[in-house]
């Protein structure tokens, strides 16, 4: 497969999947009615941040896939992606804030493990995950705070 076709497929999977999940999950009155911590960002920021992060995630996955399709970094990439796509319907769809908190902590662990294992294989891919790790750490704090407040 042409390497650039593979990149496009990674972008479609990650960016398309993430945006589709975000668009299909209705936040509605339930989320608006939740008590939130003072550091809760404005709603418009989430879409902008996730769009950039999904592009970085796709590029990192593509780079690792080019070098070792069955190694630990790629397995961890798929694991974090599954957890990422699971979090939205659990939090916003099922309204299971506590379960979503467990999922996001597992996601953060998978992201950090990806960075650690990808470091030897492709440092650029590892670095591309650093903003993602920072955002998910913040999102974990936010998720946990919302759970405690509600």
Automatic annotation (TrEMBL):
<dbReference type="InterPro" id="IPR004307">
    <property type="entry name" value="TspO_MBR"/>
</dbReference>
<feature type="transmembrane region" description="Helical">
    <location>
        <begin position="44"/>
        <end position="64"/>
    </location>
</feature>
<keyword id="KW-0472">Membrane</keyword>
<protein>
    <submittedName>
        <fullName>TspO/MBR related protein</fullName>
    </submittedName>
</protein>
<keyword id="KW-0812">Transmembrane</keyword>
<feature type="transmembrane region" description="Helical">
    <location>
        <begin position="76"/>
        <end position="94"/>
    </location>
</feature>
<keyword id="KW-1133">Transmembrane helix</keyword>
<dbReference type="Pfam" id="PF03073">
    <property type="entry name" value="TspO_MBR"/>
</dbReference>
<feature type="transmembrane region" description="Helical">
    <location>
        <begin position="100"/>
        <end position="119"/>
    </location>
</feature>
<feature type="transmembrane region" description="Helical">
    <location>
        <begin position="126"/>
        <end position="149"/>
    </location>
</feature>
<dbReference type="GO" id="GO:0033013">
    <property type="term" value="P:tetrapyrrole metabolic process"/>
</dbReference>
<dbReference type="GO" id="GO:0016020">
    <property type="term" value="C:membrane"/>
</dbReference>
<comment type="similarity">
    <text>Belongs to the TspO/BZRP family.</text>
</comment>
<dbReference type="InterPro" id="IPR038330">
    <property type="entry name" value="TspO/MBR-related_sf"/>
</dbReference>
